[in-house]
Amino acid sequence: MTDEMLRGSEARLWSLIEQRTHVGADTAAIDARIWELFGEDWTVVFTDLAGFSRRTEKFGIIHFLQLIHEQHRLLLPVVADRGGFLVKSEADSYILLFRSPRTALDCAVAMQHVCQKINQRRVPEEQILLCIGMGHGRILRVGDHEVWGKEVNAASRLGEDTARADQILVTSGFRDALGQVDGLDLEPIDVEVPGSPTNYRVIYEHA
Hints:
Oligomer: single chain
Largest sheet: 8 strands, mixed
Number of helices: 8
Number of strands: 8
CATH superfamily of the largest domain: Nucleotide cyclase, GGDEF domain
Number of domains: 2
CATH class of the largest domain: Alpha Beta
Low-confidence stretches: none
CATH architecture of the largest domain: 2-Layer Sandwich
Shape: globular
Helix content: 40-55%
Radius of gyration: 19 Å
């Protein structure tokens, strides 16, 4: 068994990246090896909370911690029930992975419904205002907590920078992988993000 086979996935990736920096390196061959080892097709879901930083500034760190706790309690069971994987949680944001675009979309709508139902009986500062961006395609998945690729970047930009509360925005890669779904409309939006020049808003029935 070679040393490369014995290495952990992250160490193996960075070993290959180091080889790429050498003068005269066959970068095409190294890149092909990296994609062979780590390239997988996934649906990427990026979630964010609208107005989170502003509300934290106004109401303080304890309010921040309460919203984080409640988001975990409300949303992670929805993700688990639909076979999703939590890759990373940073402050008020999640990166999630799903094998099926349709299952991922079902989860996104379900998460929005959970938040919308609880928000109906809350004052504005206590509401969980969820924004979601979604992409689908070939990405680099390294271990359990690292993902890279254009669909990752695009989903992140859509979820964090573009989507407003209650919105689900998706890339053209996601739309193409999803195919036709009866009763579902995707509305083009006039927004380009790195990795996805054409993007869409999911039209769904609110809770």
